[in-house]
């Protein structure tokens, strides 16, 4: 699992697997990343691999999510 935010920026409009500190793991299309101003990332959920405990509101296939970058534990490229 990669933690490089600069590398994640190269994955815009591509598939990634995102792992969050709360245990949630999703496969998603990365739609936006703003580490300088808002410190968030925007993605469309393709598949929920592992839900958070308690479950994150709104996380379901097809949903567009805005999450704080500081909540991201790591990411990897989807094949």
What is the count of distinct domains? 1
Overall structural class, as computed from helix and strand content, comes to mainly beta
Quick one: CATH class? Mainly Beta
Number of strands: 5
Instruction: Write down the Rg.
Output: 11 Å
Query: Could you tell me how far the N terminus lies from the C terminus, measured between alpha carbons in angstroms?
Result: 14 Å
Taken as a percent bin, the fraction of beta residues is: over 45%
- Strands of the widest sheet, in order across it, are 4-3-2-1-5
| Major beta sheet summary | 5 strands, antiparallel
At the third CATH level, what is the topology name? SH3 type barrels
CATH architecture verdict: Roll
Tally of helical runs: 1
Helix proportion:
under 10%
Shape by Cα distribution: globular
Written as H for each helix and E for each strand, in order along the chain, the element string is HEEEEE
Ranges where pLDDT stays below 50 over 5 or more residues in a row are none
Mean pLDDT: 92
């Amino acid at each position: 699992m990669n933690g490089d935010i600069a590398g994640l920026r190269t994955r815009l409009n591509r598939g990634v697997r995102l792992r969050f500190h709360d245990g949630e793991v999703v496969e998603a299309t990365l739609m936006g990343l703003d580490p300088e101003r808002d410190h968030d990332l925007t993605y469309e959920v393709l598949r929920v691999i592992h839900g958070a405990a308690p479950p994150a509101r709104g996380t379901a296939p097809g949903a567009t999510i805005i999450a704080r970058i500081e909540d991201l534990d790591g990411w990897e490229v989807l094949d």
